[in-house]
Amino acid sequence: MAPGEAPVVYINDPLLRVHGVQLAIKREDMLHPVVSGNKWRKLKYNLLEATEQGCKRLLSFGGAYSNHIHALASVGKELDFTTIGVIRGESFAADNPSLVEVRSFGMQLHFVDRDTYRCRNDADYINTLQQRFGPCYLIPEGGSTPLAVKGVTELWQEVDEAFDYVALAAGTGATASGVILGAPVGTEVRVYAVLKGAGFLCHEISAYLGDEGSLASWQVFQEYHFGGYARITPQLVAFMDRFEALHKIPLDPIYTAKMLYAVYAQIRSGDIAPGSKILAIHTGGLQGRRGMEAKMQTLRAHDDYGYA
């Protein structure tokens, strides 16, 4: 599973010129045609560990449009792993474009209701799954493990200049932890939560960082979730449309678009100082956009649609 290039590209935008800010985007979405962005980096060492243990069956968890499940199924086919996905929701979701593709990669899907899904971290439930499907190498929801954090730190090997700020979106905190751990001293990492009520993120990140902490400073912003995970607004969709038209860089509405909206808002407010250099991490996840297209089209027809 060899990665491609994930270049750092600078963008030219009127807002940036007005505020004297430089913004570059680390195009992690270009790492792999299917297993892109943080999913590639988070799976790398987990798959090496599974191989070391001699385990060729992988089991993990996710929703009906999960980027992680999609990536795991693809890499399972590529590297000859058997893959099992425990999917939150009803079995009719198997007909959506993402899960149709997942099945074509050879992943076996096991649908569970939301109450059962909440048990995904319970030892008894894990034992039940192991008995049903046989011995498996377990990868948590989103692929978030200390090995995933290790993989994410490696993106810094491809960045050869200094930045004042690094920006990224966060769900579970593993990707953010890897970025923070690898960031050079003097860098401030800004983590934008995509879940509503994400106060747990600071604890999760601190746990991954451990006693040694990090060379970089960091903080979590919780006010740019647009209503919660997979929730969007007319203003967010308008921002995405304008950004994509101007810069020809595809975004996903669940993670990267929210992060970039937040960065632009903080540039306008002065919270990111004029003269700053910012590196925004594009974490991929573009396949999950398929589950949002109908909602985005509806919002484009909303009376409040407009760039904010």
How many strands?
10
Question: Which architecture name of the largest domain does CATH use?
Answer: 3-Layer(aba) Sandwich
- Say what the CATH topology of the largest domain is: Rossmann fold
Number of helices: 12
Can you give a write-up of this model?
The structure is a single chain. Helix 2 crosses helix 7 (146-153). This protein has helices spanning 14-19, 37-52, 67-79, 97-104, 114-117, 123-133, 146-153, 174-182, 200-209, 234-247, 256-269, 293-300; strands at 8-10, 22-27, 57-62, 82-88, 108-112, 137-138, 165-170, 188-193, 217-221, 277-282. The longest helix has 16 residues, at 37-52. Helix content is 39%, strand content 17%. 42% of the residues are buried. The strands form two sheets. A six-stranded mixed sheet has the order 1-2-10-7-8-9, with helices on both faces. It has a four-stranded parallel sheet with strand order 5-4-3-6. With 308 residues, it is an alpha/beta fold.
Give me the secondary-structure topology.
Elements (H helix, E strand, L loop, with lengths): L7 E3 L3 H6 L2 E6 L9 H16 L4 E6 L4 H13 L2 E7 L8 H8 L3 E5 L1 H4 L5 H11 L3 E2 L7 H8 L11 E6 L3 H9 L5 E6 L6 H10 L7 E5 L12 H14 L8 H14 L7 E6 L10 H8 L8
Parallel strand pairs: 2-10, 3-4, 3-6, 4-5, 7-8, 7-10, 8-9
Antiparallel strand pairs: 1-2
Helix pairs in contact: 2-7, 3-4, 7-8, 8-9
